[in-house]
Write a structure and sequence with these properties.
Helix content: 25-40%
Number of strands: 19
Structural class: alpha/beta
Radius of gyration: 21 Å
CATH class of the largest domain: Alpha Beta
Length: 427
């Protein structure tokens, strides 16, 4: 395939280039000016439209996709723990295979329409654990997305559920070790719902299979208080002592980490994932991004995977806080591609020769000069997900001319509405 007359952009480090891009199977094979079509080559002329690497949602929960419009508890939650107890822990316990599948399908459709090509998902369904990651994988594969999946291990449902969660992680990691589209991690809920034994089992599994642990860390003050009062140490100390603090681990939120704890994370090199919309919605506070360093990415924590919107809201919150004015939101977004590059062992996010062909086409006409120096300004104040015209993943068109290929979206949504209604009634 040959993509003619593209305006190729990368956010960090910023670059803009008018270039033709040649693809072979699922990779970028060549790029240059005025490339001549070869015999039998499929040619697409983009007439100067913007192409950019596919976006990555670095921490999400697809199982929340059917919660949209769900009624609030009669006695509204007063704090973060009550939000978990009265909403999310009721929802995840009500999930069955149908609800898991349609949550993942709806979430994947939302994602790809917004130019998000990879989801790093953190799943929980205590009454339907075994095989749940395969159900999510199937739904994502049907849409065409890439995924890094895990099951949330926790002690809140007892030893039997905990062990099933460990088994689900191990099975999925082993089954997808060489899969070019899906990989597994060890999932863990958060330190405050896990004993040291359970954390140690997660750390040992991660070490055995040379993968990271995907876990919530200091999202709310309760996580910090639990470690201090019950274990006489910090949350990060517990992660470190039990083998979870690893270079390839993903620590979501980090809102209540102090400078000493962040420095421990930075020494090891774990990824810290910022989730601005979720943090604001749950009123847990504002993460100290100015301390986080280079290995910090951007997730939605279950909000739809519109990374344009997440970036903008993250930027405005950053401006309003005045605490971390040197933090580059474009870099956070690009770091999602760096994260999956490490996980898959391929170079995502560059649109250079040898990169996987995960490409987003934007119908954005800049009304002012667009340069390397002001590219971030155009991204934050001009571009948005409604401009996504086409999306390619692994060398295949998934969205073309704003149409999701091979899907009757309305029939999917008709079924998902019925599944959501049943889920709400079970809750």
């Amino acid at each position: 395939m040959l993509l003619k007359n593209t305006t190729s952009i990368v956010l960090d480090p910023p670059s803009i280039e008018s270039v033709d891009i040649r693809l072979l199977n699922c990779d970028i094979m060549e790029r240059g000016k005025n490339l001549t079509p070869k015999k039998g080559e499929e040619v697409h002329d983009f007439l100067g439209r913007i192409v950019m690497p596919g976006l990555v949602n670095s921490h999400t929960h697809l199982y929340s996709a059917l919660a949209r419009g769900m009624s609030y508890p009669k006695e509204p939650p007063q704090n973060f723990l009550e939000i978990l107890q009265k909403i999310w822990w009721k929802l995840d316990r009500a999930l069955d295979e149908d609800a898991i599948y349609y949550s993942a399908l709806v979430g994947a459709i939302d994602a790809v329409r917004c130019g998000t090509t990879t989801l790093i998902d953190h799943h929980a369904s205590p009454k339907s654990i075994t095989g749940s990651l395969d159900v999510i994988k199937e739904a994502m594969w049907e849409v065409g997305l890439r995924g890094v999946l895990c099951y949330e291990v926790t002690d809140r449902g007892g030893k039997k559920e905990r062990d099933k969660g460990l088994e689900e992680n191990e099975r999925f990691i082993k089954d997808n070790k060489k899969n070019s589209q899906f990989r597994g991690m060890v999932g863990a809920h958060a330190a405050f719902t896990m004993s040291n034994e359970t954390m140690r089992l997660c750390g040992e599994m991660a070490s055995k299979y040379k993968v990271g642990v995907h876990i919530h860390v200091a999202e709310d003050k309760s996580d910090v208080t639990d470690a201090e009062e019950n274990y006489r140490c910090s949350v990060i100390d517990r992660l470190k002592e039990n083998g979870i603090l690893r270079k390839d681990s993903i620590l979501a939120h980090g809102v209540h980490l102090n400078e000493k704890e962040v420095n421990e994370v930075k020494k090891v090199g774990s990824w810290l994932m910022h989730n601005p919309r979720s943090n604001m919605n749950n009123r847990v506070g504002y993460a100290p991004l100015h301390l986080f360093g280079e290995r910090v990415g951007l997730g939605t924590d279950g909000f739809p995977a519109d990374m344009f919107e997440e970036s903008k809201i993250g930027f405005y919150k950053r401006q309003d806080s005045r605490a971390d004015e040197n933090v580059n939101m474009a870099k956070l977004l690009q770091n999602g591609q760096r994260t999956i590059s490490e996980i898959f062992g391929q170079k995502f996010g560059s649109l250079k020769k040898g990169s996987p062909a995960d490409i987003v086409v934007l119908d954005y006409q800049p009304p002012t000069p667009m340069t390397v120096e002001n590219l971030a300004g155009h991204f934050l104040f001009g571009m948005n997900s409604s401009m996504v015209e086409s999306v390619m993943i692994d060398g295949k068109w998934v969205v073309k001319n704003r149409v999701l290929i091979g899907f009757d979206v309305e029939s999917v949504y008709e079924k998902s509405r019925k599944v959501a209604k049943k889920l709400w009634e079970k809750m």
